[in-house]
Design brief:
heterodimer; A: mainly alpha; B: mainly alpha; two-stranded antiparallel sheet; 1% strand; globular
Chain lengths: 91, 502
């Protein structure tokens, strides 16, 4: 059954997710999520429309930030260094 | 007299507004994966300082009922159970979305939840003292038997392959042993990870098992369409459930509501167990059990009626005995205590009007929930038209961020582990419901059996020979043997039999 899987796409998606989880404490939620969504859309789903690949992550990240970070006050990672400053400015 | 006073109090605009506010808050929080309704209630407890006792209690009761229903919305649409109570609905309901019939599944879910909740509300008002007395008589031995009965439902859920179903339950039971032993306090299988000491975090595990694994499965199969494409689907009106279709479900809803009510009354059993037991019982009652798990209307109506009835039922031991029937009602005790109210028999004597206003508020919540649901059902159903890449990206982000709400990155690792587990099990046709059953019922079965054995000096016969325990265990045995018996019957009567593979 597993033979019919497209392993390349699956491993790429899993790798991007693991990378996202590992980089979250360093990049913070804002930058990390933007990069994560861009990588999934561009690399896994092969989206090439700029409105989707660039606009989608911006809109979604902002939405999640509003709901979880500001609305529900969940402790989203702020990141380190310059990313910390950016995060502190927004949430 | 107190009933009239209570209803008058409820119908005061400043109080009744909290039925709407609580339901809306519950619908919103319940539909958000990563924030279960228990956490939501806990988060909003400080808000009650500014409210009167009746406003606060009605707000939280409405929020609880609304949240239990709302978990099914994302479950049906995106296979993300917004709350643990929606696990069985997710299993059945997402098949409707894949067929382009999300409106039907959402409609059944809304009506069944509201009717189930209303039936339980009537019971709450009329038979609270009797049912509370029955539940009070349950000891560890009876809880053990209830747990075994729940596990035996797996034979119904996995009627197509008993062996794989049993294996899935065993995996769930094994995972349920992770964390601190509830009796001796010894850490088990925690691998030094602090977030595992309290056991497998249930909601992150469910997010991984259902939501993230589904996205990875579609990515691996390059199946990037949430709904099976129909050439002119865009021009078709959204199909909702018809009244006669709903009427055909009346016995399913009634049965499941009563069953859910009973399970809800048992302290600790909760609405998730009620949904599982309700679903399993419905499969048993069905003439076509093999159709469950593929998108059958009864498979949504039963768990939805059961879990909402259980949410109301959980209020019965809380209000009459001061014992919480679920995790959420345990948190709700905080709302009572903030206002110097002690749940229990004296609550009826000292604040009868508040109790009856609360009863009325819970009943009204189900009607408000129905109104909200019907108003927004088309909006919810149209969410599936969002391009799948954007949806998948959102689901994976939600899975990670929602999981972060339950702890640090360690919990995210647990979620990813369950995503891999779900992907592997589904690829090899093991039912995910079995893992859920084992995970939910494992602690109940294990702890209750060990407590019962300790109380009887490790006399197993003394545990299983108690009348209620023996009765429940015999029913469980019947459930387990029924598929084999049915196959034998069909073989001897010349029938085709239930398929045993796939």
């Amino acid at each position: 059954m597993l033979g019919s899987f497209c392993w390349t796409d699956l491993l790429l998606a899993a790798g991007i997710t693991i990378g996202y989880v590992l980089l979250l404490p360093h990049l913070g939620f804002l930058v990390g999520t933007l990069l994560f969504q861009f990588a999934l859309l561009f690399g896994v789903f092969r989206e090439r429309r700029a409105s989707v690949v660039l606009g989608g992550p911006f809109a979604l990240t902002l939405l999640f930030l509003l709901i979880f970070g500001i609305g529900m006050d969940i402790a989203l990672p702020h990141g380190r260094g310059i990313f910390l400053g950016l995060s502190r400015f927004l949430y | 007299m107190e009933l009239t006073q209570g209803l008058e109090l409820l119908l005061t605009p400043s109080v009744f507004a909290f039925v709407f506010l609580g339901t809306a808050t519950g619908l919103f929080l319940g539909a958000l994966p990563g924030l279960d309704i228990t956490t939501g209630v806990a988060l909003l407890l400080p808000v009650t300082y500014a409210l009167s006792p009746v406003q606060a209690l009605i707000f939280f009761a409405s929020m609880y009922a609304g949240g239990v229903f709302a978990g099914s919305i994302t479950g049906i649409l995106f296979r993300i159970p917004g709350s643990s109570e929606a696990v069985m609905t997710t299993l059945e309901g997402h098949h409707f979305t894949a067929r382009g019939e999300a409106g039907i599944a959402l409609g059944i879910s809304i009506y069944s939840s509201a009717i189930g909740g209303l039936i339980a509300s009537v019971a709450l008002l009329s038979i609270t003292p009797f049912l509370a007395a029955v539940a009070l008589g349950f000891g560890p031995a009876e809880y053990f038997a209830v747990g075994v009965l729940g596990l035996s439902c797996m034979s119904a859920v996995a009627s197509r392959n008993q062996l794989r179903g049993t294996a899935a339950v065993l995996i769930g039971l094994l995972l349920a042993t992770v964390g601190m032993d509830q009796i001796t306090g010894v850490p088990r299988f925690d691998f030094g990870i602090q977030s595992l000491l309290g056991g497998i975090p249930f909601v992150p595990a469910m997010i991984g098992l259902f939501a993230a694994s589904e996205v990875y499965r579609r990515i691996a199969r390059r199946d990037h369409a949430l709904v099976v494409p129909v050439s002119d689907r865009a021009s078709l009106p959204l199909r909702l459930i018809r009244i006669r279709e709903l009427l055909a479900l009346r016995w399913t809803i009634l049965r499941s509501a009563l069953l859910g009510l009973f399970v809800g009354i048992l302290p600790g059993a909760g609405a998730t167990t009620a949904a599982i037991v309700g679903y399993g019982a419905e499969v048993r009652f069905s003439n076509k059990p093999e159709e469950f798990g593929k998108g059958k209307v009864e498979g949504i109506a039963a768990p939805e009626a059961a879990n909402n009835a259980a949410a109301v039922g959980a209020m019965i031991p809380l209000l009459s005995l001061g014992i919480p029937g679920s995790a959420t009602t345990a948190v709700l005790i905080g709302a009572f205590l903030i206002h110097n109210l002690q749940p229990g028999p004296f609550l009826f004597a000292d604040h009868g009007d508040v109790v009856y206003a609360l009863f009325g508020g819970i009943a009204a919540t189900n009607i408000v929930m129905l109104l909200f649901g019907l108003l927004f059902i088309r909006f919810f159903a149209r969410l599936v038209d969002v391009p799948y890449p954007l949806l998948a990206t959102s689901i994976l982000t939600l899975s990670v961020v929602g999981t972060l709400a339950f702890g640090g990155l360690g919990v995210v690792v647990v979620m990813l582990f369950f995503a891999a587990l779900g992907l592997t099990l589904e690829a090899n046709q093991y039912p995910l419901a079995g893992v859920v059953l084992g995970l939910v019922l494992g602690p109940i079965v294990e702890t209750s059996l060990r407590r019962a054995l300790l109380m009887t000096g490790f006399d197993f016969w003394a545990v299983v020979s108690r009348p209620v325990t023996a009765g429940l265990l015999l029913v469980a045995l019947g459930f387990l043997l029924a598929p084999a018996g049915r196959r034998l019957w069909r073989r001897f009567s010349g029938g085709a039999g239930i398929p045993t593979s796939g």
